[in-house]
């Protein structure tokens, strides 16, 4: 199992929550520093999401070929993979809108970016739950050696 995917995906879930807090603080205080912080946080989440996608693609091959995933988990795994790209697309859209909001000093773009950040948080939490279910419900990412060693079948 790739040891890089789990830490990356935790950042992809946590960073949008922090960006949401920063964006909300901007709306309350009207201090541009919070809006810029939200933009930087979303940008960092986008970078980490690319790393999560790359490490996840590497994991998918190993999980399907070398590990003992429950058969119903294969379709859940494919859905999780596709939804990962949806998260990246929303991150890209959020970054672009947030950039316009800051560069044009536009309240409309700030409102749209807030909605996108809320959407991003929702989608990221769903994706995180989906990944957790793959591990705990369908045994994805658990090495066969561990299963044999513990006598689980």
From TrEMBL:
Source organism, top-level taxon: Bacteria
Statement: the UniProt record of this protein carries the keyword tRNA processing: no
Regions that span the bilayer: 6-28, 37-57, 82-101, 108-126
Occurrences of domain DUF2231 (ranges): 4-143
Keyword Secreted set for record: no
Keywords: Membrane, Transmembrane, Transmembrane helix
Stored InterPro entries: DUF2231_TM
Stretch forming the signal peptide: none
One Pfam family recorded for the sequence: DUF2231
UniProt name for this protein: DUF2231 domain-containing protein
Native species: Sulfurimonas hongkongensis
């Amino acid at each position: 199992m790739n040891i890089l995917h789990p830490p990356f995906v935790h950042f992809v879930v946590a960073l949008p929550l922090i960006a949401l807090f920063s964006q909300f603080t901007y709306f309350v205080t009207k201090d541009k520093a919070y809006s810029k912080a939200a933009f930087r946080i979303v940008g960092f989440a986008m970078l980490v999401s690319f790393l999560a996608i790359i490490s996840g693609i590497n994991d998918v091959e190993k999980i399907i070929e070398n590990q003992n995933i429950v058969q119903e988990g294969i379709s859940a795994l494919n859905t999780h993979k596709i939804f990962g790209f949806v998260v990246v697309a929303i991150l890209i859209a959020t970054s672009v809108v947030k950039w316009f909001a800051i560069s044009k000093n536009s309240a409309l773009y700030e409102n749209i970016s807030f909605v996108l950040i809320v959407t991003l948080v929702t989608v990221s939490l769903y994706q995180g739950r989906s990944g957790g279910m793959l591990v705990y419900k369908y045994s994805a990412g658990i090495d066969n050696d561990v299963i044999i060693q513990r006598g689980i079948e």
